[in-house]
Specification:
By secondary structure, the protein is mainly beta. It has a single domain, classed as OB fold (Dihydrolipoamide Acetyltransferase, E2P), CATH 2.40.50.
C-alpha cells in the first residue's frame, strides 16, 4: 500500500501520448456500482509520470481485485513484469512498486474539466 500526498505530485493535463510511468503501488478501496447500487471492492493503482514540462504528475486508475485473464489488472501486471502471466499465478503487487511501464494517456472531458485517462499498458 502507498500513501500519496498532494505535495508529492501535481495535476497537469497531459497531451495524449505514451508516457513511461513508475508504479507507486495500489490499495484496496470500494466504489459505488451504479448498475447494482452496491459497493464493489476494487484496487486503486497509483502511477507517476514526468510531464514534458518536467513536473511529476500522479495518475491513478481502478481495476478489479483479481486477475481474470485479460482484464485491466492483468494488463497492468503484465506490463510491469514484461510477460504474459499464466492463469492461477499469484503476484504480490508490493513487489512491483518502482517498476516502470509505458502508459497510453488520453484526455476525457467531463463538463468543463479535462482528466488524464490511462487507456493502455505496455511493457518498457
Amino acid at each position: 500500500m502507498v500513501n500519496v500526498t498532494k505535495e508529492e505530485s501535481k495535476f497537469e493535463v497531459l497531451k495524449p501520448d505514451v508516457y513511461v510511468a513508475e508504479y507507486k503501488g495500489c490499495q484496496e478501496t470500494q466504489i459505488l456500482n451504479k448498475k447494482t447500487n452496491e459497493m464493489d471492492r476494487v484496487l486503486k493503482h497509483y502511477w507517476e509520470v514526468v510531464s514534458p514540462s518536467g513536473v511529476k504528475i500522479e495518475l491513478n486508475e481502478i481495476s478489479d481485485t483479481k486477475m481474470t485473464g485479460k482484464n485491466k489488472l492483468n494488463a497492468i501486471i503484465e506490463a510491469l513484469v514484461g510477460k504474459e502471466i499464466p492463469n492461477k499465478e499469484t503476484i504480490n503487487t508490493d513487489t512491483l512498486v518502482g517498476k516502470k511501464a509505458r502508459l497510453t494517456v488520453k484526455n476525457k472531458k467531463v463538463g468543463e474539466a479535462i482528466y488524464n485517462v490511462i487507456t493502455d499498458h505496455l511493457a518498457v
